[in-house]
UniProtKB/TrEMBL annotation:
Belongs to the glycosyltransferase 2 family. GalNAc-T subfamily. It holds the Pfam family Glycos_transf_2. It comes from Ceutorhynchus assimilis. PROSITE patterns: RICIN_B_LECTIN. The keyword Acetylation does not apply. This is Polypeptide N-acetylgalactosaminyltransferase. Pathway: Protein modification; protein glycosylation.
Length: 566
């Protein structure tokens, strides 16, 4: 009996225990539910109050928009106080923000294409995800980019637009933009991703690409305007060749008056680079390509506007995720695409405008030279022995731990069995001048008095005198010259040319010899077209050189650091 009673009691205890557990779980769940409901109600209220504020803000803005302003891409002007405010804004943000806010977001642009493009028919079936990244860009400019894509793209070719906010600090971009998308663009597939930390434009693009669903990715800066039929030739070309990466012609939208200027409808340039690691525009190199409206080989791309098949983007190594901030990713991707089996092309019948600004309107965390560091990364990974030419400009970065670990990128290069940089130079960009290869002589060019040829700090592709300066003891780019196998006395892009029979200027190399042609004879630099010799006679430190009647003598003697052949 006692034993039985004890057993019964044990059962009761067990039951009680189970009930207790169930009860407390239920209680906890209820608590969770009520709390959640409360917070739901709170945000609901929050959204509703801010919706009201946002709506008012938008209406106020929309009321001020001047219909027709900037239509057909004409330069636009405001008057009175607005005009003054606009000029101030231009100085502060490198963009006339006042004008942009008054211009319709869906302004009409004229068709800027070469008329031959109208005869070409495209019928792509691929869908694109358009990815637009931004950091503290003006909302009206971002939205004009979005509207231009929506208006100029047939809906069956557009999977979505993905806006990636690289953690802007600008208030208006926090809620108002989202509200605009939810109300004014609710019938379109425009998504907004807000990054929790500022990641820099390279990682921001990667975040966008990860979300994208389309067959192709098209990246745009957040201050662009697409024009008629811009997307069809890009997608068609990808459909034809999945390894082709395409760049539209990038037209200039003026930062001051938002004019869409086309620089004539048929002339355009493709991408090159400088040994200092910058993107440059170059003329189309192959005569047969000039005037064509089909895609044209481009050695590099500017970086902001391009189309790529989505899987190919990932297969070929997307981006170097350790690249920070701004810069370098464009050349990295260009070299990689060519060296690893893809192609980079400019598509003349696809045109997109871009607002070119005189300076970055945003700052960089810690003031880091991200362009330099990123370029050092790509030089180590992709440029083989030619990286020596980049590090000539950035010696401090050559063996600097700030450049970071490169293992993954080097592994990628191996995995993809990519070709050498030499192959790239020979096959993709044979016109690229290599200052220390296939030249007669290079290095410092000295007189017997320790004076050297010097570019007097002339920046690339500007015109200025060829000068004389005390020879630097250590390497200095300003005193680095080459005597090319074509008889040019040159830097990377500028050549010494005789003007007015005696002045010697550094001007863009034209390759036609004439006044840019020099012979190195018995230590003199002889200019056959004027029959004169380069002379340092009576030239002071830091002053311009000249050519004079050849007389031999110390003032006309020059010696190069390295002479290959004479
Ligand atoms: O930290 C940042 N986070 C960002 O999201 C810094 C910038 N950005 C955004 C920015 O808001 C913009 O939408 O990134 C985009 C590009 O920045 P821009 O417009 O200041 O750059 P850019 O036009 O001066 O520079 C060119 O080179 C860059 C090198 O990293 C990028 O590749 C840009 O996309 C590229 N722009 C173009 O190719 C447009 C044609 C210009 C030319 C030549
Ligand atoms: Mn830009």
């Amino acid at each position: 009996m006692l034993i039985r009673c004890f057993r019964v009691k044990r059962i009761y205890i067990k039951l009680l225990f189970v009930l207790l557990v169930i009860g407390s779980v239920l209680l906890l769940y209820l608590k969770y539910l009520t709390e959640n409901l409360r917070s739901l109600r709170n945000t609901d209220k929050l959204v509703r109050t801010s919706d009201h504020v946002f709506e008012n803000k938008l209406r106020e803005w929309e009321m001020k928009i001047i219909p027709g302003l900037g239509d057909n891409g004409e330069p636009a002007f405001l008057s009175g106080e607005d005009s003054i405010a606009g000029e101030k804004a231009l100085k502060k943000s490198a963009l006339n923000t006042v004008l942009s806010d008054r211009m319709p977001l869906d302004r009409k642009l004229r068709d800027p294409r070469n008329s031959k493009c109208k005869d070409l028919k495209y019928s792509p079936t691929l869908k694109a995800s358009v990815i637009v990244i931004f950091y503290n860009e003006l909302m009206s400019v971002i939205l004009r980019t979005v509207w231009s894509v929506l208006l100029q793209t047939p809906s069956h070719l557009l999977q979505e637009i993905i806006l990636v906010d690289d953690c802007s600090t600008d208030e208006s971009l926090k809620g108002l933009l989202q509200y605009y998308l939810e109300t004014r663009l609710k019938n379109y597939n425009v998504k907004l991703i807000r990054l929790k930390h500022r990641m820099g434009l390279i990682r921001a693009r990667l975040q966008g690409a990860r979300e994208a669903q389309g067959d192709a990715l098209i990246f745009l800066d957040a201050h662009c305007e697409a024009t008629k039929d811009w997307i069809e030739p890009l997608l068609s070309r990808i459909e034809e060749d999945k390894t082709a990466v395409l760049v539209p012609i990038i037209d200039v939208i003026e930062a001051s008056n938002l004019a869409y200027s086309t620089n004539g409808d048929s002339s355009f340039q493709v991408g090159g680079f400088s040994w200092s690691g910058h993107f440059t525009w170059i003329d189309i190199q192959d005569e047969n390509d000039k005037g064509k409206v089909t895609p044209i080989k481009s050695p590099t791309m500017a970086g902001g506007l391009f189309a790529i098949e989505r899987r190919f983007f990932w297969d070929i190594g997307s981006y170097d995720e350790q690249m920070d901030g701004w810069g370098g990713e464009n050349l990295e991707m260009s070299f990689r695409i060519w060296q690893c089996g893809g192609r980079l092309e400019t598509v003349p019948c696809s045109r997109v405008g871009h607002i070119f600004r005189d300076f970055h309107p945003y700052s960089f965390p810690d003031n880091k030279d991200t362009h330099g560091i990123n370029t050092a990364r790509l030089a180590h990974v992709w440029m083989d022995e030619y990286k020596r030419l980049f590090f000539m400009y950035q010696p401090a970065l050559e063996n600097n731990p700030i450049v970071g670990d490169l293992t993954h990128r080097k592994q990628l290069r191996q995995k993809l069995k990519c070709k050498s940089f030499k192959w790239y130079l020979q096959n993709v960009y044979p016109e690229k001048f290599i200052p220390d290869e296939n030249v007669f002589a290079y290095g410092q060019v000295r007189t017997e008095f320790e004076m050297c040829l010097d570019d007097l700090q002339l920046s690339d592709d500007k015109v200025g005198p060829l000068g004389l300066y005390q020879c630097h003891q250590f390497f200095a780019v300003s005193q680095y010259f080459s005597l090319s196998s074509d008889g040019e006395l040159r830097k990377e892009n500028v050549c010494a040319e005789v003007f007015n029979e005696h002045e010697v200027q550094l001007t863009e190399c034209h390759g036609h010899k004439r006044e840019q042609y020099w012979e190195y004879k018995n230590g003199t630099l002889f200019n056959p077209s004027t029959k004169k010799c380069l002379s340092s006679d009576r030239v002071e430190n830091g002053k311009a050189l000249k050519v004079e009647k050849c007389q031999g003598g110390v003032f006309q003697k020059w010696s190069f650091t390295k002479v290959n052949r004479t």
